[in-house]
Specification:
alpha/beta
């Protein structure tokens, strides 16, 4: 990688299919759609960067901000990609950490990471609006199968929190979401069997980005309402992937990313 003059190296981990749900359902598909690069772990936690990129990072006035404290991973990745540094991925085997049930209290982490993602959209609109297609990113290292610790999830609890959130937050959600999104979201809450479509999820995330951009209310209030919706989408993905192997999981997430890419014109239209 040094000999090929790459400036930024992101990790490529094998993870349990129910691990990394914030990355899988939001950060990966949004980053890929916005900036056009298939960076599978944009908040993977382990990065390599060139001296040239390090110098560029140091010119940025973010080191005393919330981005530096809570969103440094996505900031490093986005800054490298949006400023045309040469990026690749390195296979690092299994991700070893204390994986949590997605229905556990992840609201603080979700808010922090998505907040950083949206703040970066404000910094680089001229860049991401021009991206019309997406491309793979070089991957180095020998890929091999490894054993992964199981991640136990409580789908019924997630769906229950989703339903409760829609009921208790409906007034706020009406101010954040488009009329069509709100209507489909209510229909989703009554679906049997429970299904949360990729197209609706992509439109909802873009609605949130637009609401933050237009400052319909405080950023904190906007993003706190996202947690129950996120749990609903994760519950739907868990149900979809219950019998899937690793390759099938990646194919499922590919379809999710495609939905975000197809709906990007919606984001650009309403951003203005």
């Amino acid at each position: 990688m040094l000999s090929r003059d790459f400036d930024f190296v992101t990790p490529y981990y094998l993870r349990h299919k129910y691990d990394g749900t914030i990355t899988n359902s939001i950060i990966y598909p949004v980053t890929r759609s916005l900036y056009g690069k298939h960076i599978r772990q944009p908040i993977g936690g382990d990065f390599g960067f060139s001296g040239k990129l390090a110098e560029f990072y140091l010119t940025k006035d973010v080191w005393e901000s919330d981005v530096a404290r809570f969103g440094i991973d996505i900031w490093m990745t986005t800054t490298a990609v949006a400023n045309d540094f040469k990026v690749c991925q390195s296979f690092l085997g299994a991700k070893i950490h204390a994986a949590k049930d997605p229905s556990a209290d992840l609201s603080a982490m979700l808010t922090q990471v998505v907040s950083a993602l949206f703040m970066l959209m404000e910094e680089y609109p001229d860049k991401w609006k021009e991206v019309r297609s997406t491309d793979p990113v070089p991957l180095f290292g020998f890929e091999f199968s490894v054993g992964l610790e199981p991640v136990h999830v409580n789908v019924d609890r997630m769906i229950g929190m989703f339903d409760l959130g829609i009921k208790e937050l409906s007034d706020l959600l009406t101010d954040i979401l488009s009329m069509d999104s709100m209507k489909e979201l209510i229909e989703t809450s009554t679906s049997n069997p429970f299904t949360f479509t990729d197209e609706l999820w992509a439109r909802i995330i873009y609605d949130y980005a637009i609401a933050c951009h237009k400052k319909v209310m405080s950023l904190e209030h906007i993003l706190k309402t996202l947690t129950p919706l996120y749990l609903g989408k994760v519950a739907s993905l868990v149900k979809d992937m219950a019998e899937s192997n690793a390759l099938e999981v990646e194919n499922r997430l590919e379809r999710l990313c495609t939905a975000f890419e197809k709906l990007k014109p919606y984001l650009i239209e309403y951003w203005e």
